[in-house]
Design goal:
- The protein has 534 residues and is α+β, with helices and mostly antiparallel strands.
- Helices cover 57% and strands 10% of the residues.
- The protein has a single domain, classed as Cytochrome P450 (Cytochrome p450).
- Helix 12 packs across helix 14, helix 14 crosses helix 15 and helix 15 runs antiparallel to helix 18.
- 42% of the residues are buried.
């Protein structure tokens, strides 16, 4: 049976020698049956291969392709390179700023051209939607959440979310929660550092940001950081694994068959979604009961959505609230935790940059090596955070090279022509590539692959880039509403940890790699040691 193990390519559970014995025995006892079985299995492999290759060769021979993005291969190439997909697509983008893969039903077009990206995300926004193809693959996990819908549902959620993120109440409430949970994280790291124990910082960051988004988003105190809250830890693992399993569908031509038969990766995904649904629906029921009892945090996002649902019970069902909730989880947990994981990895790779961040922190909060973590939280005001231009630049540089969402795909509603003159057909997938884009010399200059926070500074002051060049938060009407929310959380976490600790990789020779999924998780976590600064 085929399984997904940390989203590497599928591999057989049965050892090779046992398989060989089975085949030899079968041929000896029932040779005609074994030949028939092998014929059926070969057909099952050849049919999908033919479905992929025939459209590819047909498109190669088409005269119309001269006005279309250059073809780099059938979609099976993505399957072959799945474990290093973003690096593979980066190597292609070095030669072709816009290119396409051929699917049996349509082309998948990708671009790193900022002019094309502005056209897709802003100028002709209405023509480039999530599309039925993308939403169908993602719906089992994300349902009708804001990241998978278009039209009225998207506008409705966008309006609600926009109102929430613009309130001072949410900003102040979230800042208090970020500081409180970061102090818990810092104290946990302090204990590990005192015992000279190695830690997986990615795991700790994931748990800390998960606890924070649940308090901010839903008004509930979780304790995944301690490892004692079994239900929330099980939910988080199921959610992270489902992230990768759903992404696998984009290259797995047999995923529908596996879902129908409930085998392999689809069986695992189904069980994960059951865990996720049970957890979230229980959360919604508990919150509704709190509201009925009059015992409620009005600051949290779910409470406000539940109050809105009273005005529109037909549309804002528990299922719809579930989908909205999961969108906030992936936005609030993965974006910050993934970025901070790569941020600390790069600080370990360049201790000089780590010291520059620490020096800026000491200046911003008036250095006192006797200050407690609780006192530090009080000094970490909005004004102090605003002074941290180098930290902001270092986080932005991390997002440039390691964007939380490496690829973002949309679908063309009508035939179109991109600004570079390349033709798009109705139904084409059209995506922009944030991960490859950060490494393109024709976008960022000859030092594109160098981690250099100074590129964001002018006379020591942070200078933002166009969202169509720096695409980590999208651009146009779908630009991320939580951008400032995410930066605030990341700066608070980074400030706490860098102020109190020096970090060093457990294995300085090991190069970090990613898991291929919707968000840029570091494969195997970030193993390092922390040392007190004073």
């Amino acid at each position: 049976m085929v399984v997904i193990d940390h989203m590497h390519l599928p591999r057989m559970k049965t050892p090779f020698f046992l398989t060989s014995i089975f085949l030899l025995t079968g041929f000896y006892i029932l040779p005609s049956v074994m030949i028939a079985v092998i014929g059926v299995l070969a057909s099952l492999l050849l049919i999908p291969l033919a479905l992929m290759l025939l459209p590819y060769f047909r498109e190669l021979m088409s005269t119309a392709r001269r006005h279309r993005p250059p073809i780099v291969g059938p979609i099976s190439n993505q399957l072959i390179h799945f474990n290093k997909l973003y690096d593979y697509m980066t190597s292609l983008a070095e030669n072709y700023p816009t290119y396409r893969f051929i699917r049996p039903t349509h082309s998948e077009i990708y671009t790193t051209d900022p002019v094309n990206i502005e056209y897709i995300l802003k100028t002709n926004f209405s023509n480039y939607t999530k599309g039925e193809y993308n939403t169908y693959l993602m719906r089992d996990l994300f349902g009708n959440g804001i990241f998978t819908v278009d039209g009225m549902k998207w506008r409705h959620q966008r309006k609600l979310a926009s109102l929430e993120f613009s309130t001072k109440v949410l900003r102040d409430f979230s800042t208090v929660i970020f500081k409180s949970n970061t102090a818990k994280l810092a104290k946990r790291i302090s204990l590990l550092a005192a015992d000279e124990k190695m830690m997986d910082l990615q795991d700790l960051l994931m748990k800390s940001t998960f606890d924070s988004i649940f308090k901010v988003g839903f008004g509930f105190d979780l304790d995944t950081l301690s490892g004692l809250d079994e239900a929330s830890n099980r939910f988080m693992k199921a959610f992270d694994d489902s992230n990768g399993l759903v992404y696998w569908r984009f290259v797995d031509l047999l995923w529908k068959v596996k879902r129908y038969l409930n085998i392999g990766s689809e069986a695992v995904l189904k069980e994960n979604i059951r865990i996720i649904d049970n957890f979230v629906y229980k959360l919604i029921r508990n919150k509704r009961e709190q509201m009925e009892d009059g015992n409620i945090y009005k600051e949290d996002i779910l409470s406000r959505f539940l109050m809105e649902s009273k005005n529109d019970p037909q549309n804002m069902t528990d299922e719809y609230l579930r989908d909205i909730s999961l969108s906030f989880v992936i936005a609030g947990k993965d974006t910050s935790a993934n970025t901070l994981t790569w941020f600390f990895y790069k600080l370990c790779k360049d201790p000089l940059i780590q010291e520059k961040v620490a020096e800026e922190l000491r200046a911003a909060i008036e250095f006192d090596h006797h200050i407690s973590m609780d006192e530090f939280a009080l000094k970490l005001t909005e004004d102090a955070l605003d002074k941290m231009h180098y930290l902001h630049a270092a986080l932005s540089e991390t997002l440039r090279l390691y964007p939380a969402v490496p690829l973002n795909s949309k679908s063309a509603e009508k035939d179109d022509v991109l600004p570079d003159g390349l033709k798009i057909k109705k139904g084409d997938g059209v995506g922009y590539m944030s991960y490859p884009m950060g490494r393109m010399t024709y976008v960022w200059g000859e030092d594109a692959e160098e981690f250099r926070p100074e590129r964001w500074l002018k006379n020591g002051v942070f200078q933002p880039e166009s969202p169509f060049k720096f695409t980590a938060f999208q651009g146009g009407p779908r630009i991320c509403l939580g951008k400032e929310f995410a930066y605030r959380q990341m700066k608070i976490l980074a400030a706490f940890l860098v102020y109190y600790f020096k970090f060093k990789l457990a294995d300085e020779c090991k190069e970090a790699t990613y898991r291929t999924m919707f968000t840029l998780h570091m494969d195997g976590g970030l193993q390092l040691n922390a040392f007190p600064r004073f």
